Amino acid sequence: MSDVLNDYRIIRKLGVGSFADTFLAESIRSNGLYFIKILKKERAFPQENSSKDITEMKFLKAAEHPFVIQYIEDFPYPIRYLEQHCIVLEYADGQDLRKKLASLKNQVTEDVLLTWVTLICLALAYVHAKGLLHRNINPDNILIVGEQQIAKLGGFGTISNIYSSDKTVGTWQYSAPERFTQDYQDEADIWSLGVVLNESHIKIL
Questions:
Q1: Which residues form the Protein kinase domain (predicted)?
Q2: Which of 57, 62, 125, 203 is deepest in the core (most CB within 10 A)?
């Protein structure tokens, strides 16, 4: 791929996923760092008869919450025949929760961990109030941002309407039991966050 996408210079690839590839990029205009997701077109713009009538891009463009990762802009991938779309997001310079706990080892206190989880609870309540499910709450999607080390919720690639029966999405280690046997609602996200809290608490002891 090109080293430049629109006004962003690609620094390095961060990950490869089923729905998107992710990159760290620098703005040519501001020199700021940003997170770019390159989505398959059908993930960004599902067909009208698709059951997935809410997408990550649609949600993030409308989201206004201090603890939800910030949408910056989106644009078509420059090579049109590839039918891909780029989303530019705030870059979590403080790492995700999993990496943060690994790098700081025992330096994270219970109070700090509880503060982070409380902020994610507020973000998750915002998502649920919109009639939506996150469906992939795990330490990789809890992002620590800025000098103040604020926790923000990211990883909205699996977002869906509040009633869901899809058992193939998410990270199974953090999934509520009903995710595998029946339709599920927002309680499944809360279960997943509880698993994250328990696992993280064990790591800082």
A1: 8-205
A2: 57
